[in-house]
Every structure is written in structure tokens, then in C-alpha cells.
Design goal:
Blueprint lengths: L1 H24 L8 H13 L1 H18 L7 H18 L6 H22 L4 H41 L1
Helix pairs in contact: 1-2, 2-3, 2-4, 2-5, 2-6, 3-4, 4-5, 5-6
């Protein structure tokens, strides 16, 4: 129950950051995705079901701000990413900081690839969008994601030392 309340608060904070703060901190039109960071963290910590749920609701929040004809494309892409990343947790692979950042990197590009396919972009448009939209956004997201993963790893180490 405590995890549910904690993650609900984190989702609310990530949603506020994504909708209010991100437009103010964009650098050359590059924007981080706090919702993807939270989805990956939830999936890595709690598995496929948590990843799918966070992915779906994160995508739904993004869909609210997307053009109406593409409604559901973000939900689909975030949900697939949450499920796929959750598979790592369920295979009992314990990741440290660098592999978690690599997972976040791969998740970001696959999320955008699924999104661009879902909205009907052609292959040359997808390559151009990945280069000019996804790549700068991914760098920004990864730099903030690395900070969050590092802070989370410090909290886990501190918790492990308490139990020793």
C-alpha cells in the first residue's frame, strides 16, 4: 500500500514537471521526458504490470496534449516500453547505474519509433524525426535520468546498509 501511495505521488510530481516545468526548461526545443524516466524506474523495480500501468497512464497524459487524430499513440508506445523494460526485472537481472541508463536510452528510442509508426510516418520521415527530434530529447532525458538513477541507487545502498 505504501508503494502505491509513493508511486502515485511520484506520478503526480512527474506529471506536473512534464506539463508545467518542461516547457520552461527546454533547450533548443529539446525537452526531457520525466514520465518516461518514471515508467522505466517503475518497470525496473516492480516488473511488467507496474511498467504497463505507469506506461499507459503516462502515455495517456501525453495523449491529452497530442493532436486528436493521434490519440492513443503515446499510450501504446509507453505501455509497450513499460512491459518490455519490466521483463528485465522479471528475469531477475539486477542492474546497476550504467545498464539502467542504457535501458533508458534504448527505451527512449523504441518509444519514439513505436510512436512515429503509430501516427503513420513514412520510413524517411521516421529517420528524419529520430535524428532531429528524438536524439536531442533523448540526450536531455538521459542526463536527467542518470541523475535520478544515481539518487535512487544511493537510497537503495543506504537501505541495504540499514539491514546489515
Amino acid at each position: 500500500m505504501l508503494n502505491f501511495i509513493l508511486y502515485s505521488i511520484l506520478f503526480f510530481v512527474a506529471a506536473v514537471l512534464q506539463t508545467v516545468v518542461v516547457p520552461q526548461i527546454q533547450i533548443l526545443d529539446a525537452q526531457p521526458s520525466f514520465l518516461l524516466i518514471l515508467t522505466v524506474i517503475a518497470a525496473l523495480r516492480h516488473g511488467t504490470l507496474a511498467g504497463c500501468l505507469f506506461g499507459f497512464f503516462s502515455g495517456l497524459l501525453c495523449d491529452v496534449y497530442a493532436p486528436i487524430e493521434w490519440f492513443g499513440a503515446f499510450s501504446l508506445s509507453y505501455c509497450i516500453i513499460g512491459f518490455a523494460v519490466g521483463q528485465i526485472e522479471e528475469s531477475f537481472i539486477d542492474l546497476n547505474l550504467l545498464p539502467e541508463i542504457i535501458v533508458l536510452t534504448i527505451a527512449y528510442f523504441i518509444k519514439d519509433l513505436i510512436y512515429f509508426i503509430a501516427i503513420g510516418k513514412k520510413s524517411d520521415e521516421i529517420l528524419q524525426a529520430m535524428a532531429y527530434i528524438s536524439f536531442p530529447n533523448a540526450i536531455y532525458t538521459l542526463s536527467l535520468g542518470a541523475i535520478f538513477f544515481y539518487l535512487l541507487s544511493l537510497g537503495v545502498k543506504k537501505k541495504m546498509n540499514i539491514y546489515k
